[in-house]
């Protein structure tokens, strides 16, 4: 999805607010930041904060100090200072919100130790930056071939060139420590650039590469999620989900981050349910086994061992009274649902396919010519109706 199809209409900006200076290419809106302090004026005598947040390829962001006189806006291309040479990035945040973010992530608000913004990017800077980006695809495939030839147990997932083509950052994942000194030597000779290797986790790899999740939307980690918290299997148990790794795992191979989104609501709801010994209730008829829970409706479903297909809904208050009666030595009679004496019985006809319109028959497209072969053999021959020419010929013969 590109900016040419969304942010512009006939060459005119169509609502993105950058007025033609959009700084994203193929990932429009990725990790977008809303400056909720942008429309607030500063107090008298307060100088604006000179820190600026710059985004590079994918989700890599760094903070720089604004030493130029130009006013920077979100989406501007800027040339920034690098360890060796320079780099080109996109402005994603300016003003007081940068100060809050620096205090949250770096635990510091002093910009003296930060690298500087050199200037706004000129056309030749952007052209050189795009030429460096064009080298990344081929470099990635060649580097993977080199790693396989050296027998290294690692996976190169992404490469990022610096705008001046003097440095390349290789991102890789590995299960154990990897000695890649020989790989760096080979790549430096082949690509003629400085090589930097960065090991990332599987979740960060998925966030850099992006993709579509099982929900049909873009991955949360590549659009808005910035912190990756541990996801345990207990999150699926609290939410009454089946422990199927194929359904619970994301594209990174780990448990989906969205399992934690509503976990607190489920944990609070399950506190109201009583604890059952061996998940059963003792009645005069026999033991009623707990089958499932409806956490938000506060309903527990039981069934007897001799009739497992008959489910009896019981409210939490009624179950608590039943447990207290058992503790006092009074065994209650058979379970009866509260305000609903009708038992829910699941029969075979409830889940069988029903043809309601008559159009779902599997053989409705089959030919019916040879439905009765005997009848087709004894069928009468076809007789053509006489035409006017036949009548004229018969009259002339007579």
Describe the protein in words.
With 398 residues, the protein is of the alpha+beta class. The protein contains 13 helices and 15 strands. It has helices at residues 3-6, 96-105, 123-134, 136-149, 181-191, 202-209, 220-223, 234-238, 245-248, 263-270, 316-327, 373-377, 388-397; strands spanning 8-9, 12-13, 51-55, 61-66, 77-81, 86-94, 116-120, 155-161, 167-173, 194-199, 280-282, 287-294, 299-304, 307-315, 344-345. The longest helix is centred in the middle third of the chain and has 14 residues, at 136-149. The radius of gyration is 35 Å and the shape is extended.
Summarize the structure.
This protein has 398 residues and is an alpha+beta fold. It has 13 helices and 15 strands.
Tell me the radius of gyration: 35 Å
Biggest sheet, spatial arrangement of strands: 3-4-7-5-6
What separation lies between the terminal Cα atoms? 84 Å
User: Helix count, per DSSP?
Assistant: 13
Low-confidence stretches: 1-15, 18-27
Structural class: alpha+beta
Helix content: 25-40%
Strand percent estimate: 15-25%
User: What global shape is seen?
Assistant: extended
- What pattern of helices and strands is seen along the backbone? HEEEEEEHEHHEEHEHHHHHEEEEHEHH
Count of extended strands: 15
Q: What is the averaged pLDDT score?
A: 81
Describe the sheet with the most strands. Answer: 5 strands, mixed, barrel
